[in-house]
Amino acid sequence: MYNETVMDHFMNPRNVGEMKDPDGVGEVGNPTCGDIMKIFLRIRDDRIEDVKFMTFGCGAAIASSSMATELIRGKTLDEAWEITNRAVAEALQGLPPQKLHCSVLAEEGIHAAINDYRKKHGLEPRPETGHAAHEEAGGDAE
Ligand code: FES
């Protein structure tokens, strides 16, 4: 069911683990299946210097989390915010349509961690753009 890239990130996930004293933490759950992702960010000068994640979830969720951490490392917070679950799925060379919703966890986790950082620095949390909800509900609608 999964392609080689997804299997690689599922079997050898990058950046797994907990981070000591992170600058931002996001924890999100998929209400449909109950799977959970936690993401930790180290931020320097508005840029993601380091990132770690822990995901209790299906293969697609683990592969998506792993790929998402690779995509956001070194990015500015604005750039990282713009990474959609579809971009994560594309970087994985595609997910089966019925597993596309699992990649939403990665997008939402990144957003939650960035907003945690913003709140800790007295900034308003950024509103969700609706990407995740759209992708989850719409699947291949774009
Ligand atoms: Fe729960 Fe994939 S089935 S995230």
Secondary-structure blueprint:
Layout: H1 4-11, E1 24-29, E2 36-44, E3 47-56, H2 59-72, H3 77-81, H4 85-91, H5 104-120, H6 131-138
Antiparallel strand pairs: 1-2, 2-3
This protein binds FE2/S2 (inorganic) cluster.
Highest-level CATH class: Alpha Beta
Can you tell me the overall shape?
A: globular
Q: Note the gap between the termini.
A: 23 Å
Walk across the major sheet and give the strand order: 1-2-3
Please provide the ordered H/E string of secondary-structure elements.
HEEEHHHHH
Number of helices: 6
**How large, in whole angstroms, is the Cα Rg?**
14 Å
Contiguous runs where pLDDT drops below 50 for at least 5 residues: 133-142
Q: How many β-strand stretches? A: 3
CATH architecture classification: Alpha-Beta Complex
What portion of residues belong to β-strands?
15-25%
Average of the residue pLDDT scores: 92
Number of domains: 1
Largest sheet: 3 strands, antiparallel
Name every ligand kind in the structure. Answer: FE2/S2 (inorganic) cluster
Find the structural class using helix and strand composition: alpha+beta
Fraction of residues in H or I helices: 40-55%
| CATH fold node name | Sufe protein. Chain: A
Short description, anyone?
The protein is 42% helix and 18% strand.
Describe what this molecule looks like in 3D:
The chain has 142 residues and is an alpha+beta fold. The protein has one domain (4-123): Sufe protein. Chain: A (Alpha-Beta Complex), CATH 3.90.1010. The chain has helices at 4-11, 59-72, 77-81, 85-91, 104-120, 131-138; strands at residues 24-29, 36-44, 47-56. The chain is globular. The longest helix has 17 residues, at 104-120. The chain binds FE2/S2 (inorganic) cluster. FE2/S2 (inorganic) cluster binds next to helix 2.
